[in-house]
Amino acid sequence: MRKSKLCHLDDLDLLKDGMTIMCGGFGGVGSPPTLIDWILDSGIKGITLISNDAGFPWIGPGKLVTEKRVKRLIASHIGSNPEAGKQMHSGDLEVTFYPQGTLAEKIRAGGMGLGGILVDVGLGTSIEEGKEKVTVNGREYMIEPALQADLAIISCKKADGYGNLIYDQSARNTNPLVASAGNITIAEADEVVDIGQLHPEEIITQGVFVDHVVQSKGVDWKWVWELKQES
Amino acid sequence: MGMGAETRKLIAKRAAEEIEFGMMVNLGIGIPTLVADYIPDSLGVMLHTENGILGMGGSPERGHEDGNLSNAGGYPVSIIKGASFFDSAEAFGMVRRGHLDITILGALEVSGKGDIANWIVPGKRVPGMGGAIDLAQKAKKVIVLMSHTTKDGKPKILTTCSLPLTVKEGANMIITERAVLKIESGGLKLIEIMPGYTVEDVLNSTEAEIEIELVRRN
Predict the structure, then answer these.
(1) Residue B43, CB half-sphere, CA atoms under 13 Å: how many?
(2) Please, where are the H alpha helices in B63-177?
(3) How far is CA A73 from CA A49, A53, A67, A155, in A?
(4) What are phi and psi of B25, to 5 degrees?
(5) How far apart are CA A114 and CA B85, in angstroms?
(6) Alpha-carbon gap: A10 to the closest alpha carbon of chain B (Å)
(7) pLDDT per residue as tens, chain A (231 positions)
(8) How far is CA A204 from the centre of its chain?
(9) Do B68 and A170 touch (CB under 8 A)?
(10) Which chain A residues are closer than 8 Å to B129 by Cβ?
C-alpha cells in the first residue's frame, strides 16, 4: 500500500531564512491560510516571494509582507496591499513586476520543466527594457526565463493521499501552476480523502507534483467585501 | 475620478452598447465593472476574468456570497450557464491567442494615437500592471473608460503620454463623461458628445488633436 502524503506541519523541517517561496492564490482567494500562518510562526525572514499579487495586508501572502518577512517580491500587482507599496518606496522591499499572463506562464514553464517562454506582451513598453529578444517565424519575442521555488504552497478543495488535487471554482487560479513549480510542494486541503475517492477525470493537479498534504484549518481572515458589509 | 454615480453609470451604459452578440469580454476594475449591468442576457456574452472564469455572472444576493467565487478584484460574483473555471495561465492563453473581443479598462492617460498609461506613476503610485498589458495588447478592441480630465482639470487625453505605457497604440475608443472618441488610423475622432457638454468643452479639455465626426445616435 502506498504511503500517504498527509502529514502534520510540526513534522516538516523545511523553512529557512532567505528561501524562495511561491504562493498560490489571486487577491488572497485560493491562498493557503494554514501554510501562511505556519511560515509566519516559524519566524523565518528574508524570503523571496513569488505570487500573482501581494494580497491584502491581512489576507493571503500579504500577511508575510506586512510582517516584514519578505525582502523580494515577484508579482504582477501590489495595489491591494498598501503595506507592500510603502516598503517598496522605503527600499525595504524589492519588487519585480511582470504582466499577469507572463508571470503565470513563467511559473507554468518552471513547473513543466521548460527553460522559459517566448512572449510579446509588453513589447513597446518599459517591460522590454533589458530583455533578451529573439525573432521566430518573423515575429519578435522576449525571452522570459522560467520560475521555480524552493517551496511552493497552495490550497485546494480536496486532496487524496497521493497528492492528487481538485480545486474550488475561481480559487483554482494560480494554484495548479504553483504546485508544479516548487522543488518541494505542500498542498493545504479543505478535505483529505482516500486514494480512489477522486474521479480520474476530475483531478486537476497530479499527485506527482505534490510532496506533502496538510489539513487546512480554514480561512482565518475577513474578505474586503465582508468588512464592507459589516461597516 | 470624482465622478458621481449617475455619470459613472452613463459611461458604463454607453460602453455596453459596443458589445455584440456572442462576444467574449473582459471588464476591468472601477467603471468598467459597472458595464456588466447593461449587457442584455439575450446577447449571450461570455465575461472573462483573469483569475479563471469564462461566463461570469452578476453579484450574488447578500448572504449568498462564496469566498471562492470572485472576480479579479476579489469581489463575489456568480456564473451563468455554460461557464467554466480554469487556471490563470489558461485565462491569459485565451487572451494572447486572440479570443478576447473587447476589453474595457480605466486609464490615467491616453494619447491621440491610442497609447494607454494606467499602471504606474513613478515614485508615487506603483500598483503594478496586473493583467492590463496582456489585455490591452491582445484584445481585438480596447475601450478606455475614464474621467475626461484629472482632479485638477488637466487633460488626460494627450498628444503624448507622460507616464510609462501599458500599451502602444492599443486603444480603439475612449468614453468619458464629456465625449465618445474613436481612434482610427492613428488619429482621434470625436463621434459623440455626452449630455450637458459641448464640442467646445471637449476641445478645451483635450490636449491631443481631434477630428470632429459627430454621429447622430438613436
Answers:
(1) 18
(2) 88-96, 132-138
(3) 5, 9, 14, 20
(4) -135, 140
(5) 25
(6) 28
(7) 678 999 999 999 999 999 999 999 999 999 999 999 999 999 999 999 999 999 999 999 999 999 999 999 999 999 999 999 999 999 999 999 999 999 999 999 999 999 999 999 999 999 999 999 999 999 999 999 999 999 999 999 999 999 999 999 999 999 999 999 999 999 999 999 999 999 999 999 999 999 999 999 999 999 999 999 998
(8) 16
(9) yes
(10) 76-77, 97, 99-100, 127
CB contact under 8 A, A29 and B67: yes
Q: Which residues of chain A are within 8 Å of residue B87 when distances are taken between CB atoms?
A: 104, 172-177, 204
Nearest residue, CB atoms, B126 vs list A29, A88, A219: A88
Nearby residues of A167 by Cβ (< 8 Å), 6 or more positions away:
A30, A156, A157, A175, A176, A204, A205, B85
Contact B50, A53 (CB under 8 A): no
Nearest-Cα residue of chain B relative to residue A53: B130
Give the three cell numbers for residue A145.
526565463
State how far Cα B183 lies from the chain centre: 14
| Residues B152, B130: Cα–Cα separation, whole Å | 27
| DSSP 8-state assignment for residue B70 | B
- Cβ contact A126–B72 (<8 Å): no
B80 interaction partners in chain A (CB closer than 8 Å)? none
Q: At B115, list the grid cell.
A: 497609447
Enzyme catalytic residues of B: 50
Substitution target in B65, B133, B138, B165 with the highest count of A β-carbons within 10 Å is: B133
Q: Residue B156 contacts by C-beta under 8 Å, 6 or more apart in sequence? A: B107, B108, B109, B110, B146, B147, B148, B149, B150
Assembly ipTM: 0.96
Chain A to chain B Cβ contacts (< 8 Å): 150
Residue position matching grid coordinates 455626452: B194
Task: Find the CB nearest A174 among B73, B88, B137.
Answer: B88
Whether the model clears a pTM of 0.95, i.e. scores above it, the answer is yes
Q: Which amino acid is at B190?
A: L
